[in-house]
């Protein structure tokens, strides 16, 4: 894979998405500690000083303005171009921007960082774009569990009003997230399982728990009630960090748990031979598309599969 291909966001090794939409990059790490073997940080190190990645602190949080503002419609808030500094250099449209791409596409929202570290205005603009591109599906992931509520508050569908609760006037808040936005968290060890409870509190149509990399047996702590999709994967070799393959029993328990709740399971292909499961690549994409208004969806061309493996 060339650097040019990587930066254009073409799908190469994220099996459950088609394109990565990296309108920002960087991460401060959960609790201020960077994750061991972070692939995004390794890529940012190779790209430092180029393509909008800082030369010094190459994994600090920065905006890639060409990816966020490409062909933005005039109805977006005026601060999107006037008030946000153009860190990535001269403004230039990204050819794969959600507004430009009409064929229904599954975007991985920010594969090169954690979008919960983004400036609020950046995140609001991204969510506005997602809402106005119902032909696409956007998969989001974060380890900032305590900040998940921010996604709902920043949502363009957030509504504030007054109603009656228990016979008294009270302020009512409706923080619905667009149906084509999958709100997901990454859970890799037992300490992080607490994030699933936080995810359940979010008013999202599809909630995802990504057990990648699965570094410990978490099955005795996990409750998947209210979850709509799980992904399970190993840790790949990144720099000096060695590959780690989770034990078959850990994976078995999670898959059985998901089956009991009728939750789609996506098992990364790199695990199937070692773990012993047949290839499982289930997604909630069809369920999401059915929930969106039919007249808003642009169907794929006849005979064309969405995704290189046709898993949805």
Protein described:
InterPro entries: DUF5131. This is DUF5131 family protein. This protein is an alpha/beta fold. The protein folds into 2 domains: 142 residues, no CATH class; 115 residues. 25% of the residues lie in helices and 16% in strands. The chain is built from 10 helices and 11 strands. Strands 1-4-5-8-9-10-11 form a 7-stranded parallel beta sheet. Strand 4, helix 5 and strand 5 form a beta-alpha-beta unit. The protein is globular, with a radius of gyration of 19 Å.
Spell out the blueprint of helices and strands.
Elements: H1 3-8, E1 19-21, E2 24-25, H2 39-47, E3 62-63, H3 65-69, H4 79-82, E4 106-109, H5 120-131, E5 137-142, H6 148-154, E6 159-165, E7 168-174, E8 181-186, H7 194-200, E9 206-211, E10 229-232, H8 248-260, E11 265-267, H9 269-275, H10 285-291
Parallel strand pairs: 1-4, 4-5, 5-8, 8-9, 9-10, 10-11
Antiparallel strand pairs: 2-3, 6-7
Low-confidence stretches: 1-12, 71-91, 162-172, 295-312
Q: Number of domains in the coordinates?
A: 2
User: Could you tell me the strand content as a percent range?
Assistant: 15-25%
The number of helices is: 10
Mean pLDDT equals 77
Q: What's the N-to-C terminus distance?
A: 25 Å
In terms of structural class, how would the helical and strand content be classed?
alpha/beta
Biggest sheet statistics = 7 strands, parallel
- Write down the Rg: 19 Å
The count of β-strands is 11
Widest beta sheet: strand line-up? 1-4-5-8-9-10-11
Order of helices and strands: HEEHEHHEHEHEEEHEEHEHH
Protein name: DUF5131 family protein
Pfam families: DUF5131
Organism: marine sediment metagenome
InterPro entries: DUF5131
